[in-house]
Amino acid sequence: MSKFLSENYAKLVPYVPGEQVNLKVIKLNTNESPFPPSPKVKEVLSEEVIDKLNLYSDPELKELRSAIAEQFGVTPDMVFCGNGSDDVLAFAIMGFCGAGGKLCCPEISYGFYPVYADIFGVELEQIPLKDDFSIDVNDYIGKNKNIVIANPNAPTGLALSFDDVEKIISSNPDNLVIIDEAYMAFCGESCMELVKKYDNLLVTRTFSKSHSLAGLRVGFGIASKDIIDDLNKLKYSFNPYNLNTLSIKAAAAAIADNEYYDDKIAKIVATREKTIAQLKALGFKCTESKANFIFAASDKIAASELAAKLRENGILVRYFNKAKIDNYLRITVGTDEDMQTLVDTIQTIV
Ligand SMILES: *Cc1c(COP(=O)(O)O)cnc(C)c1O
Predict the structure, then answer these.
(1) pTM (2 decimals)?
(2) Ligand 1, pocket-test mutation among 30, 33, 68, 85, most atoms within 8 A of CB
(3) What are the C-alpha distances in Å from 205 to residues 18, 53, 81, 158, 183?
(4) In whole angstroms, what is the distance from residue 150 CA to residue 23 CA?
(5) What is the pLDDT of residues 194-253, one digit of tens each?
(6) Of the residues 33, 156, 180, which should be mutated to test ligand 1's pocket, given the most ligand atoms within 8 Å of the CB?
(7) Parallel, antiparallel, or unpaired: how do β-strands 102-106 and 293-298 relate?
(8) Which of 49, 79, 202, 291 is a good FRET partner for 344, with 20 to 30 A between their CA atoms?
(9) Residue range 28-46, pLDDT digits in tens
(10) What is the pLDDT of residue 211?
């Protein structure tokens, strides 16, 4: 640490991203898609667009917000875009819960929520899950705090039903409820339509998982116009050009290509179900994941040891050295072939 860092940040414990590697490995550690993005993305990244990079990107993100709005049946003024959905979550937690505010989230969930709470001085309550890793909805009814829940949750993969999510939203009318739908495309029940019914709901999504564009860094939030106006006020006070021209074009092309992504998502879901069945046959416990990853544990081998052995075999998975889940591995669903290699390798190890 240099002597210049503000005291406020001296004790920050930053988020630790999953490892990125250049070696030839089977990479099942950060929930990326194994498929390339839609071919439409390549088409729009033309020389003409590159030649215009001397100009600033559109701070209003008109093209992208319209494309997203069209997909979800809302108006563009209900869409906020960020440099990844992490950016959207950061603006929301800073702006709506910021210094001195209160926020709660499940104890086992996305690792960034506590980090954002910490950096923005938000008092965070982390609510334990039930023993089966599910969220007890009753814990969030009439909570009188802002709430952030990943649905499906990570790293458990378990999803709340539409009705349960609506109960949480409707019973907390004076607080913001953020539903982080990063993994929703993989077959959960989205609450997106409720943004028209409730003014305290912000739903966030990302292009990183379902749309094979983790490297592009685009995410978005959909909410009432008032919430989006607030988020824009924060954005214009911090980084008006938070998306670059290439990202805007590429994401707008991707979101419109339902045919391509429906096919890829269906493949991932089918491979997920197949792999879960194979792991169960090898004696693993697996949660009923509605995401593009599997959460699995074996009685025969410690998760940390299995992760290390898979690594020696060129397969990366995610191990969390954290109470209650330290015997589980989070395994991203790759291609059918990669997952077969995983299962075969696990079989030889155990
Ligand atoms: C991956 C992830 C995000 C962030 O994704 P971005 O790449 O920043 O869009 C947000 N929430 C959850 C639960 C995630 O797993």
Answers:
(1) 0.95
(2) 85
(3) 20, 27, 10, 17, 8
(4) 31
(5) 999 999 999 999 999 999 999 999 999 999 999 999 999 999 999 999 999 999 999 999
(6) 180
(7) unpaired
(8) 291
(9) 999 999 999 999 999 999 9
(10) 98
Residue carrying structure tokens 């693993």: 284
297-305 CB contacts, 8 Å cutoff, 24+ apart: 297/327, 297/328, 297/329, 298/350, 300/350, 301/349, 301/350, 302/327, 303/327, 303/328, 303/329
Residue 92 Cβ inside 6 Å of ligand 1? The answer reads no
Determine which residue's CA is closest to atom 1 belonging to ligand 1: 182
Distance CA 127, CA 146 (A): 13
- Write the CB contacts of 250 (distance below 8 Å, at least 6 apart in sequence): 37, 41, 44, 45, 213, 216, 218
In sequence order, what are the residues at sequence separation of 6 or more whose Cβ sits closer than 8 angstroms to the Cβ of residue 218?
64, 81, 82, 83, 84, 206, 207, 208, 243, 247, 250, 251
Is 251 in contact with 312 (CB distance < 8 Å)?
A: no
The residue whose C-alpha atom lies closest to atom 11 belonging to ligand 1 is 182
E strand or H helix at 149: strand 146-150
Q: Which two tokens stand for residue 192?
A: 């997106």
Establish whether residue 208 lines the binding site of ligand 1, counting it when its CB lies within 6 angstroms of any ligand atom.
Answer: yes
Whether 182 lines ligand 1, by a CB cut-off of 6 Å, is yes
Task: Give the pLDDT score at 177.
Answer: 98
Q: Which two tokens stand for residue 34?
A: 């194994």
Q: Which amino acid, 70?
A: E
**Token pair of 334, please?**
């790759």
pLDDT digits (tens, 9 = 90+) for 68-110: 999 999 999 999 999 999 999 999 999 999 888 999 999 999 9
